[in-house]
Amino acid sequence: MKKLVSSLLCACMMIGLMAGCGVTSAPGAGSTGTSGSTPSTPAGGSSASTPSSNYDDVTPDVTLTMSHQMAASHSINATAEEFARLVREKSEGTMKVDVFPAATLGTETENLQALTNGTLDCAIIAAEFYANYVEEAGILCLPFMYDSYDDAAEKLAGEAGKTVADMVLESTGSRILDYYVLAFRQIFTTSSPLNNVDDMSGLIIRIPDSTTYNATFTQMGAAPTALAWGETYTALDTGLVAAVENTPESVMSASMQEVCKYVNVTNHILGPTTISISDKIYQGLTAEQQAILDEAAAEACQFGLNATKDGSDANFNALSDAGLEVVDTDVASLQAKIDYSNFSCTQSEAGSAILAAMGK
């Protein structure tokens, strides 16, 4: 119940904040181009995270608001903070990014809508959410698409990632500054282990609001149910859903190990996320300021990739220490159910070309 109340409070706070979170100092973004204003502190005492720097005595010409869904302890927040630090450093204090974690400014779906409208400056947006606007973006998070973290980074930096970024920009007005490789996702269950694909039959599993994830788990025989991340703990605890799939770190940062008994090692999806900015905001900046954001995003995403690699074994150990049974699921039985040609994102000419660029 606490989780549900927290989610409702965050939604209420977002309504008030979103009206002001687009107030940036970016020229052409509804301001004069010079402003020291920053977002107001959210109700309840939560505030934006701001990295320490050597430029604290410099008044920024540009202040940007950045939102994401994860707790302040999560590596996504650390990566967002690194992006903010790099922007401050590279601009010598003339640009600043205020980071708001834990869905303070709304859900990921709401954040993407706000980027499109130009009422939010920056956000961490996962590729699967872009797939709701550009179907072909779903190819980046199809099941069993990547062999390793380095393989994912290489493919996302190549033709496939660039093509999707261009399509997203054209369709949504959200500019992907760079891709950030997250950990392989696992399936967490509350009552029984998943030994093979037969155990997936009828399993009510929480998924993000994504057509790609829905199609993936439908092909595996499960009953996928889209829920906001902030509602998932309560849904597991009350039995509304019997499983959740995500990275180990994300599950632990939301304390869901408290209501799950099994971590089933499936490595079914590596869902890349992005550092994204509203193109309305981006186009209001100078070429130099745009270059600073581009460079900072690339370096922050490399920071995130390293954090993903470094945390992999430690996160599994932490789950085991928390009392979860680690199940070695028969991944081949899951993979055998997947037919890429049955995903709508692969059926267009562009989709076929992106899939080929991914080596599939």
Write the SSE topology.
Layout: H1 2-21, E1 62-67, H2 75-90, E2 95-100, H3 108-117, E3 122-126, H4 127-130, H5 149-157, H6 159-172, E4 174-180, E5 186-189, E6 204-207, H7 211-219, E7 223-226, H8 232-238, E8 243-246, H9 248-253, E9 262-264, E10 273-278, H10 279-282, H11 287-321, E11 325-327, H12 331-335, H13 349-357
Parallel strand pairs: 1-2, 1-3, 6-7, 6-8, 9-11
Antiparallel strand pairs: 3-10, 4-10, 5-8, 5-9
What is this entry, summarized?
By secondary structure, the protein is α/β, with parallel strands linked by helices.
Overall geometry: globular
* Unreliable sequence segments: 1-47
Biggest beta sheet attributes: 6 strands, mixed
Structural class: alpha/beta
Task: Give your account of this protein's structure.
The protein is α/β, with parallel strands linked by helices and about 350 residues long. It is about 40% helix and about 15% strand. It has helices at about 1-20, 75-90, 110-115, 125-130, 150-155, 160-170, 210-220, 230-240, 250-255, 280, 285-320, 330-335, 350-355, and strands at about 60-65, 95-100, 120-125, 175-180, 185-190, 205, 225, 245, 260-265, 275-280, 325. It has a 6-stranded mixed beta sheet, sandwiched between helices. Helix 7 links the parallel strand 6 and strand 7 (about 225). Helix 2 (about 75-90) packs antiparallel against helix 11 (about 285-320) and helix 6 (about 160-170) packs antiparallel against helix 13 (about 350-355). The radius of gyration is 20 Å and the shape is globular. Residues about 1-45 have low confidence and may be disordered.
Features:
360 residues, alpha/beta, 6-stranded mixed beta sheet, 5-stranded mixed beta sheet, 11 strands, 14% strand, globular, disordered N terminus
